[in-house]
Amino acid sequence: MSFTLHVDAVRWRAGIRRVLDASQHEGGPGLVPVIKGNGYGFGRGLLAREAAALGVDTIAVGTYAEVPDALADFTGDVMVLTPWRPFGSDVVLDDRVVHTVGRVEDVAALAEVAPGARLVLEGETSMSRHGLDRHELAAAVAALGDLQVVGFAIHLPLVGAGPAEGHLREAESWAAALTASRLETSTLFVSHLTPTEIGQLSSRRPQLTIRPRVGTDVWLGDLGALSVRAEVLDRHTVGRGERVGYRQRAMPRDGVLLVIAGGTSHGVGLEAPRSGSGVLNRGKTLAKGGLEAAGLALSPFTIAGKQRWFAEPPHMHVSLVFVPADVAAPAIGDTVDVAVRYTIATFDRIDLD
Ligand SMILES: *Cc1c(COP(=O)(O)O)cnc(C)c1O
User: Fold this and answer.
1) What is the distance in A from the centroid of ligand 1 to the CA of 63?
2) Residue 78 C-alpha to ligand 1 middle, in angstroms?
3) Phi/psi at 259 (5° precision)
4) Angle at 38 between CA 35 and CA 44, to 5 degrees
5) What's the 206 CA to ligand 1 centre distance in angstroms?
6) Percent of the chain with pLDDT over 70
7) How many Cβ atoms from other residues are within 10 Å of residue 12's Cβ?
C-alpha cells in the first residue's frame, strides 16, 4: 500500500536551478539550501544528495540532531540554524559544522569549550526569535577568542508588518551595523529576503557578500513538478445510517466507503475547523445541509474532481473516505490525488522520474 510522491525530476531540478541562479550575484558563493525537519517531504537524505549534485559549498540544517546525517550525506559545510547553547546535549563539534551563536555569554562559553570552532553570529530581528541585540555586537566580538567567524546572520519574518520596504530597511540597518563593527567578516547570511531585495541590498552594500538561506522556495518552488497519489486499498458499499469505523458513525447517505492509503503517519490530518465554527456560521452550515452538517470533515483526497469527506478521523496508515452513490468511485488498486502540506508529510515512496 502506498502513499507516493511523484517527482518530475527534470522539471523539479530546473526549478531549483532557477532559484539558485537568481540568487547568484557576480560569481559569489550564493545560496545556502536549507534541509531541515522532514526534508520538506522529500526526506533530508535525498535533499542533501541533491545539494551535493548542485555543487553548493554549504547546506543548513535545523538542529544538532540533524547534523550527523548531513555530514554523512554532504561533503561541504553544515550550518546549524538553531543557536548553540551551553546546555545542548547533542552538539556536534566538527570542522565542517558552522554554529550559530546569538548571546554574548554563549560566544564566551563556546570559545571556552571549542576554541577554533566556526560560527555565524546572529542578530535579533523583528522576528524576535533568537539573536544579539545591536548594542551587544561589540561585546560579542570581544568575547570571540579563537573562534572563527564565517559570517553574520539575520532571519526576517515572512510577512512585513510595516511598509513594503520594511524588510530591506531592517536588513540594511544590520548590514550597516556589520560594516561598522570590528567583526572580521563581510558575509551576511539572510533568511526570507526576496531575490529582488537581495539584489537591492547587494547593490547598496557592494562590499558585503549576501548569502540567502532558502528551503521552501528551493525544494517546493514549483509544486507543478510534484504530485501525490494514494492507492485505494478497499471499497465497501454502505447504506444511509450504516455505522462504520472505529467510531461507528452513521453514514449520512447511501454511497461507497473507500479505504485509502494515507493516514496520520503520513501527515494526513483532519482539516482544521474552518472559520465556520461560530454560532452564525454553524447555522449557515446547517441551513446548507449536506455532509458538513452531518459532522463530517473534508478530506484532502480528490475523487471525480472534488475533495471528498472523511467518514471519520484518519487512522495511522489509512483514511476512510465517503463517496456518495451518485459519484463514480474508484476501484481497488486505483490511485487518487491527495493535497498535502509538504512540511509535515511523509511518503511511503518517492518516485523521481
Ligand atoms: C527554516 C529556516 C529557513 C528556511 O525557511 P524556508 O521558509 O523554508 O525557506 C531560513 N532561515 C532560518 C533561520 C530558518 O529557521
Assistant:
1) 12
2) 14
3) -105, 110
4) 45
5) 24
6) 90
7) 21
Per-residue pLDDT tens over the stretch 187-207: 999 999 988 899 999 999 999
CB 66 within 8 A of CB 92: no
Residue 272 has pLDDT above 60, yes or no: no
Overall average pLDDT of the 267-296 stretch: 60
Question: How crowded is residue 142: how many other Cβ atoms within 10 Å of its Cβ?
Answer: 12
* Statement: residue 295 has pLDDT above 80: no
Please tell me the residue having the least CA distance from ligand 1 atom 14: 81
340, 333, 326: which is closest to 258 by C-alpha? 333
H-run or E-run covering 111: helix 104-113
Cα of 70 vs centre of ligand 1, distance in Å, is 16
E strands present in 192-242: 209-214, 226-238
pLDDT tens per residue, range 309-353: 999 999 999 999 999 999 999 999 999 999 999 999 999 999 998
- Strand pairing of 298-303 and 335-338? antiparallel
pTM strictly above 0.85:
yes
In this structure, the strands spanning 97-101 and 77-80 are: parallel
Integer-rounded Cα Rg, in Å, for the chain is 25
CA distance 79 to 58: 7
Q: How many residues does the chain have?
A: 353
The minimum-distance atom of ligand 1 relative to the CA of 214 is 9
Q: Which three cell numbers stand for residue 208?
A: 558585503
Q: How far is CA 165 from CA 126, 161, 200, 202, in A?
A: 14, 10, 11, 15
Q: Quick one: cell of 254? A: 447511501
* Cβ 213 under 6 angstroms from ligand 1: yes
| CB 155 less than 6 A from any atom of ligand 1 | yes
- CA–CA dist 311, 256 (Å, integer): 10
Q: Cα–chain-centroid distance for residue 28?
A: 26
- How many CA atoms lie less than 13 Å away from 348 in the CB half-sphere? 15
pLDDT at 274 over 50: no
The torsion angles phi and psi of 82, rounded to 5 degrees, stand at -75, 130
